Records
---
Amino acid sequence: MKHVLPAIAAATILAAPAAAKEFTWAVTTDPQTMDPHAVNSAPVLGFLNNVYEGLVRRGKDMSVEPALATSWEPIGDGEGWRFTLRQGVTFQDGAAFNADDVIFSYQRASNEASDTRSWFAPVREVVKVDDYTVDFLTNAPNPIFPGSIANWMIMDSGWAEANNAALPDKENGNFATLNTNGTGAFAVTAREPGLRTVLEPHAGWWGAVEHNITRATVQPIQNPATALAALLSGDVDFINPVPIQDVERLKGNGDVKVIQGIEARVIMLGFPHEAEALKYSAETGDKNPFADARVRQAIAHAINVPAILQTIMRGNAEEVSQLVSPAMNGYSTALAARPAYDPEKAKALLAEAGYADGFSFGLKCPNNRYLNDESVCQAVTGMLAQVGVTATLDAMPVQNYWPELRADNFDMYLLGWSPGTFDAEHPIRFLASTPNTEKKLGSWNFGGYSNARVDELLPMIQSEIDAGKRQAMIDEAHKILQDETAYVPLYVQPLVWGARANIDLTQRPDNFFILRWVSVN
Amino acid sequence: MTETPIETRAPGRWARFRDSDFFYAFKRSPVALVSFAVVMLLVLSSVFAPLIAPTNPFDPASLNLMNGFTPPMEPNAFTQESFLMGTDDQGRDVFSTILYGMRISLFVGLSAVLFAMVLGIVLGLISGYFGGWTETIIMRIADVQLTFPSILVAMLIFGIAKGFTPVEYRDQMAIWVLILAIGLSDWVQFARVVRGATLVEKSKDYVAAAQLIGRSPWAIMIRHILPNALSPVLVIATISLALAIIAEATLSFLGVGAPPTQPSLGTLIRIGQGFLFSGEWWILFFPACTLLALALGVNLLGDWLRDALNPRLK
Amino acid sequence: MLSFIIRRIGQSVLVLLITGLIAFSMFRFVGDPIDNMLGQERTLEDVERLRAQLGLDQPFPVQYFKFLENAAQGNFGVSYRQGRPVAEILLERAPATLELAIVSGLLAVAFGIALGVFTAIRRNGVAANVIMATSLIGVSLPTFLIGILLIYLFSVELGWLPSFGRGDTVALGGWWTTGFLTESGLKALVLPAITLGLYQMTLIMRLVRSEMLEVLRQDYIRFARARGLKERTVNFRHALKNTMVPVVTVIGLQLGAIIAFAIITETVFQWPGVGLLFINAIQFVDIPVMAAYLMLISVMFVGINLIVDILYVFIDPRLRVDRAGGH
């Protein structure tokens, strides 16, 4: 790090070249590492997508497109996938890219020390066929494998080994934590963690250049009001997200523009399926009302989602009926209707379940994780109170939230889920499967929801090659989850980006900001 | 500060009070009269909030989300309801929420300052008067205390309280935690100033004389030394009261304040500042003005009180 | 005098140890660092393995002594979040906070004393009363709101000053970076310094005024006036000097408060100092950074207290006698 500091100081004093197209973008969370395999989180992967590349990448519409591999095809009868690599690609330090880097990056990313290991759970072996051909052999037929590794980034084996960074080091950090050497369109030229990161175009990039940026700075700004002020005053060119309530105002401002879309993240309510009794209830005694599907259905009917979207989300979100948004692969079109807002029906269902007088319970909610999460929970509390169910809202910062959920300290909780694979299989695996540490299933299924048929369907979905049959299985799983009201999906969180009026950019539904699609006018 | 006209009802006392210099000075000071009136108005309206407020904002069942973001004095587009100061994002009547929120703010502020003052004065007197190891220990504890920003103290107490409070009391927990946290981070100021004054007074002849005639240390401290330390203590206490209310707001900005379902004035401001740029100015403006009026009134009243109660300034 | 200082230093070390203990025990309530270190697709097995790697599965005393052992050797460990030595990160961030604190502190002391003296001398003047009243507005609103309002007015509406950050900085020597030498650096300093210094200024001003008023009533001041000394001489040479005992105490305390309040100001203005680092560390449960920050702050506070105590002895000779063991 020491060598970087003087360089930055010098760079900031020097006047920028005349034709320079400088671009500054504000992020709420600084990417915590520059190591593409150390942390599997959106801020890190989203940022590094500008610097590193995978064999495949996602296009503007999220479709899987060639990157470091020019083509791929299934091997035999679902034994795996063969990738043909792109020739003439160089890393930012000038080294050439070939199959050895792919094998090395596989070993690195699938190592115990890596956070991206789960991507390679289906992989049995990776074989170098020749310098530009690599085979990925899977345990079972895996139709979605190429798309599932779109965020797996290739690192230069020589560079990593020379700098003692052959494995990621989450605990102590290493050379790759602060330095980068990718094949991507931009190279990191200065990095001050938490303060700013500077990117400049990679002159030897293989792709066709669409952007006109000469220098880009990533600037973390935590407080939403400050970020908005910075955008309005022109101190930054781009912020993400724009606070929902400010969207209307910004639209009327000629200096800035708002780019909106639907994110992959579904916001839902979860229940303590497994719990013997409620934890935060005075009168339910040793009973768990939420174990009764009718009570869960009553909750679904009691919540006026359109009203939440109308006021709190200001018409910037869409309601959803299942664990994935309509933009995802595997969305069940036939099951698009969400339980209608019907407080009378909710009361009737509660009475039927033996809770005509309602009951009280504790609702856990994060207050800095999802857009307006606390306000939404507050509104939910009010709506439930109107059908006689009294929730005590306990909203907390996300760093306290996950430990509470893991410790089962909830009677109901708010959760947002964005499938990294953009496929419906993802939430079924993480949220709907019976928790099983050994098989790495249901690891975010805090309530312990369990359904034998869903568990049976999951491996079938994972290995089914035929798209139609696969969709039928996913539909069946979604149907079960809906009928049992395993979760109450509420809405799909919107993407709201704000930029200065002279910036052209493309918004990708996974909320990744892709610098090579930006131009400054 | 207990000598307010309201509390002294006994005729004899009242007559004496009415004829006192103190009351005379009060009547003659427009600043004192106005700030007293403002503070009293705010305090009384928060005490009688359930009678004055058109709605009960702490009852979630009474809220209609569709009333959200109604501007002041204008009918809502969906429900046609109209509100004096508009509504917030939850459709809560801002006016009612301010009245209820002020109750919480005042309660937290007064309790925290009282707690800090008593603790600080006692520890300051003890350490200044006895000196030696007692002083060392107390002042080192003060050092440790000062080391921890109040924010962190609050987070710590929050965390611990969460672990130990029974489930049914969690609702009220936040308030007590705030009092404890703000009080604990404030006592050092009182202690340091009282100790400083005690060190000075202790070496004076009258203290030696009192010691000589065998008065107990506590009597000396409270009767003789404490009155001399009262002036700076009052300055600090005044600012502390306003500041305790504001500290609560700051803590809520950092996510450890009163819960949003039962907001204090500070929580309302924290929520309202999110709407500063979006055009819903009333969600921030009215709570901020109320806080300003309250804090300003308390401070001005304190200013005047300090001058009036100080015999040496006559 | 010397033995007094030595004794105080000994106590200071004890304070640091206790601080460390308290800081450490509070971390278990701040949250779980693991969630921020592993992504959404982590398994419980991953969680347990990382916990063991970080030594978080060890009993509390073991963790604490390990921390002390390392800290004594100047090793504060490696940030969970950044994967870099904490000492390095703190050194990198310290100049920003110190420069901000120095500027706000100087603003507060200079304006506080000047306005305090002014309002005391012109006790009944219109200007003095206006100053007293308006100064209160600044302490009657929460810091974060004042900061946001200043940003709104001066950055968004008027466009005069930057809305966040520290502007361009110049490296001095090995690790110090300063914003004092560039135009954007100085501009960036204005709003945060006002936000941070406002409360301290008001407090100092009110205290100076109140002490001044008392001193001006004292016999020796009346006597000095009667002797025909110039009003200026009386006010500044005699009166102001004698108000300094409590004022120095409070300034000492407020220096500490400035560092603590910097947390809020730095968050609002995205000022890249240790306060912002600390808030981030809480957010991401970066225990080594939190621990080191608290130790750093304790060292600073203990130092300030030590200096204030010594200044006491110099300003008020009676205390010196007292220290020496009585009359």
---
Amino acid sequence: MADTSVTHAHETHEHDHHDDAALWEGGKEPFRASYGKLMMWYFLLSDAFTFAGFLIAYGALRFSMPTWPEADFVFASFPFWPGHHPLIFVTVMTFILIASSVTMVRAVQEGHRENQKGVVFWMFLTVLGGAAFLGSQAYEWTTLIATENMTVSQNPFGRHVADGVYLNPDGSEAKRENGQPLSFEKGESYILHMHGADITGMAFHDTEKPGEAMLNHEGTKIKYTTGPDAGRVSEASVGPKAFGALFFFITGFHGFHVFSGVLFLTIIMINAAGGVYAARRNGYEMVEKIGLYWHFVDLVWVFVFLVFYLL
Amino acid sequence: MAGHQSYEEQKALVVKGLLLLGTITIVEVIVALIAKGHMIPGVKFTHGFGHYLYMLLMIGFSIYKAYFIIFFFMHMAYEVRGLAVSVLLPTTLLVWAIIAFFQEGSSWGARRELIKEKDEQIVKPAPAGQPQGYLIPGTAGQTKG
């Protein structure tokens, strides 16, 4: 009964359209969508608010800070390709997720045609895409945590609020190897590690490059030469602390969605291969429902990508 | 439901979606790299009007991608109107949330500047012989004999 009601809902709906009493007799689906599908939509709506809350918190904190790390400086590493490659790796991650969303659409379409082999094949590709995305995120996180020393409570990335120059421990102006002063400009990005950080093998370990001064001990002094603080000597500080926590919580929450999506996709793929949904004769509705969830994960990534990497 | 389209039309949609989302993403990244000064030497949109234009463009592209995913990949275009409205309309509350929280964030920033300013203020020590502590209004300058 429950199986057939899905496919025949369209026909039965038309007949007693004006009979209000008949509405209470059951068998009619609100919005002509099955219970499961409708509830998936409402779950996704609530989840959208959770993500929106996170991203708006990021925006509010960013607006409250005089400076904020620049995405093209922070996210610039690529596996097996040393050097500074801004935003290239996250673009690859975005493509992986788009591709897995496309294969999911194909799986749902094959489901509507009751093509079991097609469903399993396209779902398998979707699972691979999800796993590839998680692997990429693992690389991104590992680089940020283990190499660049960013954690939920520590953020080495920042931007200078005014022009200035680095000072030697004795108070004199620090010089580059070529004799030029080790100076910086307003808005220039920096990465600053506190004491004990291992900086060997860092992608940014090149103080000759403008804007990428590397410091690895506490108590480094800087002197501003412009702005309201001109002439004042102060200690170089790490970047806004909230950046690390926001990055790991928001991309982590999204990554957890991807992870649980991969688990559910795998379970549903195995069920589909075992003929569970073929027996239901409802156009592989379960595949359609997990498809909605999977597209939503891609949808959220569109905005995570916008907020963290583009703006 | 997808029954509104033929199988060939459905497959064409998938190719269209892949090309569309892929192209927009590439355009976004190229524009971002230009705006952040990585592509063309000397060209940079990190301040003022150019920066606002850049941000608007990025937000516009992202909203279009979101629209395409919701309406075609998630089939919202083929659902009944009531379902679409009940899911999409509540998200307009976020417009209020964005305005309210960003304004609040800016206010925190202004306060942070004020607190920093007050922290760094050098308070002159009161000259000897002058009263210290709280002054009753109107009694400034008077000393008790």
